[in-house]
Amino acid sequence: MVALSHWLTAPGADDLCWLRVESPSAVAGCRRAATTLADRLGFPAARTDELALAVTEAASNLQKHAREGLLLLRIGRDATRSGVELVTIDAGPGADLPAVLRDGHSTTGSLGIGLGAIRRLADTSDMYSAPGHGTALAARFWAPPAPADAVRCAGLNRAISGETECGDIYAAGRGDGGVLTGVLCDGLGHGPLAAVAARAAIAAVQEDPAAEPAALLERAHRQMARTRGGALAIVRIDGSSVAFAGLGNIAGWIVTGGLRTGLVSVPGIAGHQARSLRQFSYPLPPGAAVVLHSDGLTSRWDIRALPGLVARDPLVIAAMLLGEAAVRRDDAGVLVLKP
User: What pTM does this model have?
Assistant: First the structure.
C-alpha cells in the first residue's frame, strides 16, 4: 500500500484559457491573459514581466510562422507551489529547433529574442517538432522561481467548441518509490454535467489511491451512479510493471520508441453499465511512457511519425498528441505518465 504524496489534477475552466493565434491582434490578448493569471497568483512584478515577454514571443511566433496556432495558458499547481504553464500547438511545417532556440534568432523582424528566451526565462521548458506534423512548446513559470523536480506526468484537456467546461478530466499522483497512479474520465456528453460525472470519478479514486486499479474502478463506478456516467481508465506504474483497469472507450497505450502497445478496457459506462471489471498487467520497457486519452482523440496517431517524442517532457508529448489526433466535434483529454 503506497500513499500518494500529492495530485496533479486538471485545472477548472476558471484556471485556463485556450487562445487561437491567427492575427497580430491575438498576441496582445495572449499577453493580457498571462498577466491576469500572474496577478491572481501574486507574481512579483519582475516575474510577471518575464512571463509576459515569453508569452509575447511564443504568440508572435505562432502568428508569423504557424498554421492553426493554439496557445494555452493555465494555472498549474503541485504540492508546494503554483505557477503559470504555457503551451503552444500548431499545424505548421515544423521548425529548425537548434536555430529557433538560439537567443537573437529572428526570421521576420519580430522581437529578435528567439524562442531560446523562453527557455531562459522559464523554470522548465521543452519543445518538439516533426516535419509535416507541427510543433509543440511547453514552459512553466513558478512564483517565485524555484528549482523544479523532474516532471513525471502531465495532461491536457480542451472543451468542445461552444462549451467553457470540459467533461474530460484527469488526475495523477506520485507515491513513495516513484509509483505513479493516473486516472482519466470522459463524462458522458459535454458541458457542466459531463464535468460533474468526471469529477465524481476523480474524487472516488482520490479517497483511497493506494488500492488496486480494479478496486478504484469499482468504487468510482458506484459513486458515479447519480451522474450521467462516462468512460473511465485507471493505471498504476510501479517500476517495470503497469496495472490497468478501464471501463468504456478511454484508450490506453504503452509507448516506446516507434512502438505502442494497447491496454485493454472492458465495454460499459462507468456509473451505469458494467458486466465485469478486470485488471490487466503489462511490462513497461525502459524509457517508455504510458498514454491515456479520450475518444476526443482518434487512435490513428502513428508514433513512428514522431521520432524521439517519448523522450520529451510529458506536457510536450500531450501537446503533440492533442495537435496530431484531436477531433473538433468532441471534448478532448490526454494524460501522459513517465516513471
Answer: 0.92
